[in-house]
Amino acid sequence: MWSDIDYMKSYRDFEADPIRFNYTQWAESISRLHASGRHYVPIIDSAIYIPNPENETDAYPVFDRGNAAGAFIMNPDGSPYIGDVWPGYTVFPDWLSEHAEKWWTHEFVEFHKQWAFDGAWVDMSEISSFCVGSCGSGNLHLNPVHPPFALPEAGSASSAISSSMSTYPVTTSSISSVYRTTPTPGVRDVNYPPYAINNFKGPLGVAAISPNATHADGTLDRWMQLSAFFPFYRNHNIIGAINQEAYVWASVIDASKAAMNVRYRFLPYLYILFYHSHVHGHTVMRALAWEFPNDPSLANADRQFLLGRAILVTPVLEPGSSTVDGVFPGLVEGKELWYDWYNGTALAVPERADTTISAPLGHIPVHVRGASILALQQPALTTREVRETPWDILVAFDKNGQAKADLYLDDGVSVVPNATLTMTFASTHRKLSATITQGGWKDQNALKSISLWVKKHGRALVGAWNGELALNERYQLQRERAWSSHCNSECQMDNSD
């Protein structure tokens, strides 16, 4: 469970609303979440409310401690740089300062004593402010105020700073230029899908389901399905917007459940992508041009994205559409194969790069790249339950009949796990091998099935490792033995196995 700023007292960091989020009662709720295998992550904004010095009741000890520690960004004249965020006028931690790090850590530790949260959703860190420049300088008597509120015209404090420090010009603005009221599609509007797809920051990309999505034209169905393939999946609304809870409409329920089932099947794959992001700096979600840098035509392909190298997602972004155009890198040139996730069939080579794909409401096209091997588990209600389900191995061969991948395993919850396991998979038409490269983690879940996807002699074949492939049929090789005993060094299954 993730909490946005609604849990805060007057939108101030490290303080909870005593009525709606009573410390004792909410701590009990978090304990129940933990018992069911769930986690709790509150938002923490990198913007600290600065109290009104003329109002004794406006005390905020979090600011006082940070100010005493010298933790905040300052103007060139030595005064605090004061912007405007949700609680009103705010200051900002100086992340390059050792003092800020110590103060910030202390506040997290103290807040965690009240609530045993499992992580933090740190937001507004750019610096992100609703005004330009140190607009709060000289205006703290207006606190506490909450946006949107009319910001003063260029103030005397900003003018004084600008004139005294000519090498550090301070930009001032009135409210008309501070608040963006007309979105700029594809440039800065995160509610416009292509911007959301191609402008992620870090591996845990955050692009919320649009507050403008509606069930009436199908956009809510589409956004719920698209966002299921974002690293961070959330439905985000704003006060005053139309309702968009997924459970209100039958079609949105069905569309969401269908996409969530695929997402939870992919959880082991997403987990290793985050492992590679942590260890090697790789991306989890990536633009097509990043994976295929030698194809200049993909520079403008901003309506599809990849998860790692193996999964291609082609969302429908236009209201009322039942088809969507997409590109499949390397397919026309005969360099790559792409398979439909839902039926395992290989795509036919199109006459041109742009391909029209059937996508009725409730369906989001997902394709698997040839030369990929995916370790999958069964969908369940929580990630803990998924980790306790049997394994399926999906082998999607390339045009040369080969595929490879790796797998990372640990207990799935520990910050520093006691044991880990990394494996490599490699396959040709005659042999699938799984080799442990390092680690001693023992996974006790059974290997349920191995599925093979291959395109041979122009035909799409979907089968299992039982000695032959049958056209348009999926056979599954049942394995009752546990994963740890089946592949604890190197296991090979040739076509006689």
From TrEMBL:
SUPFAM superfamilies: (Trans)glycosidases, Glycosyl hydrolase domain
GO molecular-function term, one example from the UniProt record: alpha-1,4-glucosidase activity
UniProt keyword annotations, A-Z: Glycoprotein, Glycosidase, Hydrolase
Domain Glycoside hydrolase family 31 TIM barrel: 1-146, 220-271
Catalytic reaction list: Hydrolysis of terminal, non-reducing (1->4)-linked alpha-D-glucose residues with release of alpha-D-glucose
EC number: 3.2.1.20
InterPro entries hit by this protein: GH (IPR017853), Glyco_hydro_31_C (IPR048395), Glyco_hydro_31_TIM (IPR000322), Glyco_hydro_b (IPR013780)
Highest taxon in the source lineage: Eukaryota
GO biological-process terms attached to the record: carbohydrate metabolic process
Enzyme type, top EC level: hydrolase
Stretches assigned to the Glycosyl hydrolase family 31 C-terminal domain: 281-374
Gene3D superfamilies: Glycosidases, Golgi alpha-mannosidase II
PANTHER family with a match to the protein in the record: ALPHA-GLUCOSIDASE (PTHR22762), P-TYPE DOMAIN-CONTAINING PROTEIN (PTHR22762:SF133)
Family under the similarity heading: Belongs to the glycosyl hydrolase 31 family.
The protein's name: alpha-glucosidase
